[in-house]
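Researcher: We're teaching a course module on how sequence relates to structure. For the next exercise, students receive a sequence and then see the predicted structure as tokens, so they can try to spot secondary structure elements on their own. Here is the exercise chain.
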Amino acid sequence: MIKNFKDIVILLITSGVLILLGVIIIGDYWVALEENRPVDESVITLMKMSVTGLIGVSKFKKKKKK
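Model: And here is the predicted structure for the students to work with:
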């Protein structure tokens, strides 16, 4: 699990990015709902890229441990 300081730092940075991303996505959905407009395409692209990046980083870290 969490073995050293580097793992704690990575966990904090990842958590912070996910929280910030969640606030941006929920905020845009909320504004789109209030204004009766479609969700901004750049937010959808940001969501896709973030998920792809997190999956890539997690797979890289698993490969590196082996």
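Model: If you want an answer key for the exercise: The chain has a mean pLDDT of 83. The helical segments are 5-35, 41-65.
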